[in-house]
Amino acid sequence: MTTTTRGFSAAGLRRVRDVLARHVDSGKIPGLVALVGRGDETHVEAIGTMRQDGGAPMRRDTIFRMASTSKPVAMAPVMILLDECRLRLDDPWISGCPSWPTGRC
Question: Does residue 67 sit within a domain?
Fold first, then answer.
């Protein structure tokens, strides 16, 4: 684990790693790769293995199969816009997409 003094504290990174390791140690998931960012700084943790029965260890560049993730991925920027009061849930969706043709949807 890399420790830094700018964006992350060593104690905070240890807590993140401990929480993630507990999930792996519980047996619910075989392993994980987590990315945490603050400003220009990022921190990556790779814990556990790729399969329930062991196998290769997780690495920073492990490739995952992702299924049914379009909704959470699409909602992340929406939640940011809501938090910044740049979008309201009752706004017409077309107002957020000015390049969309004004004809039939």
Answer: yes
